[in-house]
Design goal:
The protein is of the alpha+beta class. Strands 3-2-1-4-5 form a five-stranded antiparallel β-sheet, with helices on one face.
């Protein structure tokens, strides 16, 4: 199973961006999205260090809600 994580872009340097989500910051490659107009504040889906698609803030929030529910369910099963 592959898992993408929604993150918000906080800075951009060429094809690299610093992205944050839930207090975690990572360097992310924007190379796969080079044809898109990407700017600071945008949300992207990140998989293995690459932004693979842009998304709205609402889509990012909804995805995090689902991920949080899955983690909570896993914790309650343990």
């Amino acid at each position: 199973m592959c898992l993408g994580i929604p993150m918000q872009i906080v800075s951009i340097d060429g094809f690299n961006a610093r992205c944050e989500a839930k207090g975690v910051s990572r360097e992310v490659s924007l190379f796969l999205l080079q044809g898109e107009d990407i700017k600071i504040g945008d949300h992207v889906m990140v998989h293995v260090g690459y932004a693979i698609q842009t998304m709205t803030a609402q889509e990012a929030r909804s995805t995090w809600e689902l991920l949080d529910e899955m983690l909570a369910a896993e914790d309650s099963d343990a």
